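Sharing a chain and its predicted structure for anyone who wants a worked example. Both blocks are below, sequence first, tokens second.
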Amino acid sequence: MSLSARLFSANPDKAWVEKFFLLYSPVWMAGMAYMMLSGADKRWSDTALLIQSLVMALPVLLIPMLIARRYSTQPWHDSYWFKVNLYLFVFGFFGNYFGSEYFFDVLGMVYHYPQVTTTLDSALLGEGKQTVPLIMYAYTHVYFMTYHASANIVLRGLRSLKLPAMWLLFPIFVFGIGYFWAWMETKAMANPMMASSFYYQKMDLMLAYGSAIYATYFIASFPIYYFIDESPARRWTWLQAAAGGLSASMLTFYLLDSAAHWVGSL
């Protein structure tokens, strides 16, 4: 079996989308690097930031939609690109609307964008001292796109090795990949260039222990996302993909709440 066959799905409708997601990942990363290096997040208005966030996020949906016919004969609502965008939207919406409250109150995350007036977050969950800028919903979509696509490739490569005790190794790798991306995002975003806009009150604790709590998002989501259309013979409907995103959200809710009971706040 070739390396490509080991890493990318045997379902061609899925494989090309995963490749596109990986190719697009450096693009959004460069966009975020520009924001940090230029100080645009401090200077730009609420409208300018919203436009920039949409310019980063919409290609994840629009480019696959425009080129899908070159790689797939599936109708748009049965195509992998549509179903995973729907899944990521549902899961990312939960992560911001509800999950951010745990980051504020348990992990000590702070957003400070005085020019941002467009916000959206839970009215009842959390202490309510902070709000979630709407731009974070768009940014989350591209972050989660990369995290989930890379997790698929690593987990598929692991399964192709057919190692003994795979039932034990699979969840260990799920946690390891989730922790890696949680740590990387924390380290990349909470840096001196953005210190006045985004930071953690106890950075060392967040990197060491808070990243494990953030990884609960991916412990819940990676295994569900992995199996969307993994077999060409067992395709999911768009409704099942949405239900998968909702299921991952609810599992994350319980895991975050368990961590809050166990850890308290950092």
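Comments welcome. The chain is about 70% helix and 0% strand.
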